[in-house]
Amino acid sequence: MTRPVSRRPGRPSVLDSRAVAAGALRLWTERGFATTSWQDLADATGISTRTLLRHFATRSDIAWIGVAPATGRLREALAGAAEDAPVAGVVRAAIVESVSRDPRIHELAPDWLRLISSEPELAATAPAVYQPWIETLAGYLSRRRPTAPAAIGRAIATAYQAATFAALIEWAEAGAVGDCAESVDRMLCWLETHTP
User: Fold this and answer.
1) DSSP letter, residue 5
2) Domain spanning 66-194: which CATH class is it, in words?
3) Residue 79, by phi and psi: left (phi above 0), alpha (psi -120 to 50) or beta?
4) Which distant-in-sequence residues (6+ apart) come within 8 Å of 121 by Cβ?
5) Residue-wise over 26-54: b if at least 16 C-beta within 10 A, else e?
6) Picking from 83-87, 105-109, 144-148, 156-160, which range would have the lowest pLDDT averaged per residue?
7) How far is 91 from 73, CA to CA, in rounded Å?
8) CB atoms within 10 A of CB 59
9) What CA–CA distances, in Å, run from 72 to 25, 95, 112, 134?
10) Are the beta carbons of 188 and 95 closer than 8 angstroms?
11) Labelling 180: which of 73, 92, 155, 169 has CA 20 to 30 A away?
12) In the chain, what are the domain boundaries?
């Protein structure tokens, strides 16, 4: 049974978006994404429907809440890399850094990964959601390889995003044992080693 997130009486001044996402994910795991209403989400999270709608335009926005912070971590890691460091190593390290090591997130990650990979509405929004992550990486690649066509940078960044997602799905399907960031690192090492 899904328990509501505890809150003080009255209107919250700051919405704990991670708590909302955790409550929503538990509910979606139990009942399914398509059959869960905004009122169901309000009951599960302890946040009014009106407040939820003020912060999230769609239910998909709740489901994808972790991608923007991951993009921020990727951006910071790339910005902090030495300009003369090998590109492949910087990219791999930055992508691994973009994967959260927060134990609370790891606990929810397998259910989240199953949800976003199986729910048609979420799968349809995935390309737009991941675009800032891809553009961040493509921008770095273009700066480091200015003679390469911009389309090549975007294609390589898209391939890295697909490999990262595949590693996360494989980690979840294998029982979510160990650190998912390490699973991503192994996948990207393999990709580097086997790319001509």
Assistant:
1) P
2) mainly alpha
3) alpha
4) 33, 34, 60
5) bbbbeeebeebeeebbbebbbbeeeebee
6) 105-109
7) 12
8) 20
9) 22, 11, 20, 12
10) yes
11) 155
12) 17-62, 66-194
Q: How many CB atoms lie within 10 A of CB 91?
A: 24
CA angle 75, 171, 79 (to 5 degrees): 10
pLDDT in tens, 109-146: 899 999 998 899 999 999 999 999 999 999 999 999 99
Count of beta carbons in the 10 Å neighbourhood of residue 182: 14
In degrees, to the nearest 5, what angle opens at C-alpha 47 toward C-alphas 70 and 103? Answer: 35
Residue 135 DSSP symbol: H
CA–CA gap between residue 11 and residue 109 (Å, rounded) = 29
The Cα 196–Cα 182 span in angstroms is: 23
pTM as predicted: 0.85
List the one residue out of 12, 38, 16 whose CA is nearest residue 27.
38
Q: Locate 89 and state its tokens.
A: 């190593």
Q: Is the pLDDT of residue 14 over 80?
A: no
Give the residue among 63, 101, 88, 99 at the shortest CA–CA distance from 156: 88
pLDDT digits (tens, 9 = 90+) for 97-111: 999 877 777 888 899
Q: What is the CATH number of domain 17-62?
A: 1.10.10.60
